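Support request from a user on the community tier.

User writes: "When I paste my C-alpha cells into the form, the page sometimes reloads and wipes my input. The last time it worked, I copied everything first. Here is what I submitted, just in case something in the input itself triggers the reload:"
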C-alpha cells in the first residue's frame, strides 16, 4: 500500500503543479490528471475505510490549492460539485471491480471513467450555464463545446481526449505500483525467518 500512497501524494502534487504552472488550454495539460485513476483504483485496491475517502480527500486538497489560491473559484459552484459527483461515480465503478482488480479490468474501466466524468460535468455545464439553451440542441452543444469561457477555441472533446490519456496512463501506473508493492511484500515476508 505504501507505493500506492506515494503515487497518490505524487498525483496530488502533479495536479497542483500543472494547475499553477501548466498551460490553460486543453491542447496542453488541462484534464490530464491522475484523480480519476486514484478514484477508480483506490476503490478497487484500498481497504474498505479508504476506498472513497483517499480519492475524495485527494480531490479536496488539490481543489483547495487550485480553486481557492490560484483560480479564486468558489468551492460550492455546481461545476466544482460536479467533479465530486463524477469522481464518486468513478469510485463506485472501481469498488465494483475490487475482487477482479487487474490491468485487464481497470484499463477498460478507466475509459468508462473518462466518459462518466465527461458526461456528468458537461451535463452540469448545460444545466447551469445560462448561455446554453435548455433544449436538445443546447445539450448537444454542451457535450461538444463545453464551457463557453473557452470561446469555442477548445472543444470539449479535447478535454475528453486529455482525460482518456491521463486516466489510462495513471491507471496503468497505479496498477503497476500495487503489483510492485505486493511483490516486494511477498519477497520480504519470504525472506524473514520463521519464529516458533
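"...and here is what came back when it finally went through:"
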Amino acid at each position: 500500500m505504501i507505493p500506492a500512497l506515494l503515487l497518490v501524494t505524487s498525483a496530488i502534487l502533479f495536479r497542483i503543479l500543472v494547475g499553477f504552472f501548466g498551460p490553460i488550454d486543453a491542447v496542453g495539460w488541462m484534464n490530464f490528471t491522475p484523480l480519476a485513476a486514484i478514484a477508480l483504483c483506490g476503490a478497487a485496491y484500498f481497504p474498505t475505510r479508504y476506498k472513497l475517502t483517499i480519492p475524495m480527500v485527494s480531490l479536496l486538497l488539490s481543489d483547495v490549492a487550485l480553486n481557492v489560491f490560484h483560480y479564486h473559484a468558489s468551492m460550492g459552484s455546481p461545476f466544482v460539485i460536479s467533479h465530486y459527483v463524477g469522481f464518486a461515480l468513478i469510485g463506485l465503478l472501481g469498488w465494483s471491480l475490487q475482487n477482479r482488480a487487474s490491468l485487464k479490468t481497470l484499463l477498460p474501466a478507466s475509459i468508462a471513467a473518462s466518459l462518466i466524468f465527461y458526461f456528468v460535468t458537461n451535463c452540469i455545464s448545460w444545466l447551469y450555464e445560462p448561455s446554453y439553451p435548455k433544449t436538445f440542441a443546447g445539450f448537444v452543444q454542451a457535450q461538444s463545446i463545453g464551457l463557453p469561457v473557452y470561446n469555442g477555441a477548445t472543444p470539449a472533446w479535447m478535454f475528453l481526449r486529455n482525460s482518456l490519456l491521463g486516466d489510462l496512463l495513471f491507471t496503468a501506473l497505479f496498477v503497476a505500483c500495487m503489483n510492485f508493492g505486493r511483490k516486494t511484500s511477498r519477497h520480504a515476508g519470504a525472506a524473514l525467518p520463521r519464529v516458533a
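Agent notes: The reload is a front-end session timeout and is unrelated to the input. The first helix runs from residue 2 to 21. DSSP finds seven helices and no strands in the chain. Escalated to web team.
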